[in-house]
Amino acid sequence: MALRFVGKDPESGDHGCPAVWVDDETHDVVIQGASADRATLARTAEDSLLPSHEGVVRLPARMIPLLREALDGAKPQ
C-alpha cells in the first residue's frame, strides 16, 4: 500500500485528526476524522443505510483545500 499523506487539520494541534491520504496505487482517498454525532447519523441514514462495518465522518469546512488536493492527486493518469 502506497499511502501518501496530504495533510491534517491545521487546527488539530498535537492531535492527528482529521487527516487525509491518497493511495497512489488504487487512487483511493483515505480520511481520518471524528465519528459523526447521532443526529448526523440519523439524517444520513434517511438517504443511505449504514452497514455495521462502515462509519460516517464529519470534516470541518477548513479541510476543503486538503480534500481538493487529495482528489486532484488521486486522479488516475
Explain what the structure shows.
25% of the residues lie in helices and 25% in strands. The protein is of the alpha+beta class and 77 residues long. The chain has one domain. It has a 3-stranded antiparallel β-sheet, covered by helices on one side. It has a two-stranded antiparallel sheet with strand order 4-5. The two termini are 18 Å apart.
Question: Can I get a quick summary?
Answer:
This protein is α+β, with helices and mostly antiparallel strands and 77 residues long. The protein has helices spanning 38-45, 64-74, and strands at residues 3-8, 19-23, 29-32, 34-35, 57-58.
Q: Key features?
A:
three-stranded antiparallel β-sheet; two-stranded antiparallel ribbon; 25% helix; 77 residues; alpha+beta
Q: Layout of helices and strands, plus pairs?
A:
Layout: E1 3-8, E2 19-23, E3 29-32, E4 34-35, H1 38-45, E5 57-58, H2 64-74
Antiparallel strand pairs: 1-2, 2-3, 4-5
Order of helices and strands: EEEEHEH
By secondary-structure content and strand pairing, the structural class works out as: alpha+beta
- Structure summary, number of beta strands: 5
Indicate the percent of residues in helices: 10-25%
Radius of gyration of CA atoms, rounded to a whole number? 14 Å
Overall 3D geometry? globular
Number of domains: 1
Widest β-sheet, arrangement of strands: 1-2-3
**Distance from first to last alpha carbon:** 18 Å
pLDDT < 50 runs, ≥5 residues: none
**Largest sheet at a glance?**
3 strands, antiparallel
What's the overall average pLDDT, rounded?
Answer: 88
Number of helices: 2
